[in-house]
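Case 253 in the screening queue. Each case pairs one protein sequence with one candidate compound; here the compound is magnesium ion. For every case the pipeline is the same: read the inputs, emit a complex structure as tokens, and attach any notable structural observations.

Predict complex for case 253.
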Amino acid sequence: MRYSVLSGGKRFRPLLLLAAGEYFGASRDRLLPFACAIELIHNYSLIHDDLPSMDDDDFRRGKPSCHKAFGEDIALLAGDSLLTLSFEIMIRAPWPAEQHSCKEKAMQVISRAAGPNGMIEGQFLDISLAPDSLTEDILHRLIRKKTCALIEAAVKAGGILGLAESVQIQALEEYGAGIGSAFQIRDDLLDSQTERKKGAPFRPNYVSFSGVREAERRLHGLVDSSLASLDGAGIRSEELRSLALELKETKKS
Ligand code: IPE
Ligand code: IPE
Ligand code: MG
Ligand code: MG
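Case 253 output:
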């Protein structure tokens, strides 16, 4: 568990949760358990995503993936534990009794996004779609579920915990959905610059489907419309703006 979680990673989802929550006035101490929980869920999903029965990836963040370092049995359990621990962390997070409904709502949003109506549906589509069944719509649904769901939930949970108004939460949702899709298209652009392991299973990829130019055009459009959603609701968070704008950088570092 420590090997995977503490091996680097951009911490994009917790940064979003903190940025949204702090913008609306919640303290970092209060938000951190939720930010950490969402990062643990993300890390569990990566450990399982790399397993031989999934994407069969030997490396993650420049190091041997969890199952390469510890075996598949331990990797499965590490993933299971991170997911379970994330809920323990959220439920134990100190929160004022009179705002208990916000904490419950944030946990609902995060659990729904991680589960069978969100990330798991996306992962299911990712491993089960045949190359000739792909359409633009199916690919967008896949991206919305596989990657957007958790990113959108991070931003939205931040707003909920910060007691944002419903129009602001709606705008955060739109922003999250836009940058969530942009994030996966960017990941596909970066993946397309890397050679895949020989014999690796087919996985839908926006760049293979639409080409680099269209993927870049789409990515830029999504980032711009996400920023427009924030502007429309008068949300002037420099952090949320820069987290979105950084997605336009698509050269491998
Ligand atoms: C990779 O996520 C998997 C996707 C959902 C695209 P990240 O790019 O956030 O991975 P880390 O945490 O920074 O390594
Ligand atoms: C991973 O997507 C998405 C989840 C783990 C939910 P990918 O399989 O496209 O991401 P990488 O390229 O392995 O990081
Ligand atoms: Mg995958
Ligand atoms: Mg993968």
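Case 253 observations:
- The first strand starts at residue 59 and ends at 60.
- The beta strands are 59-60, 63-64.
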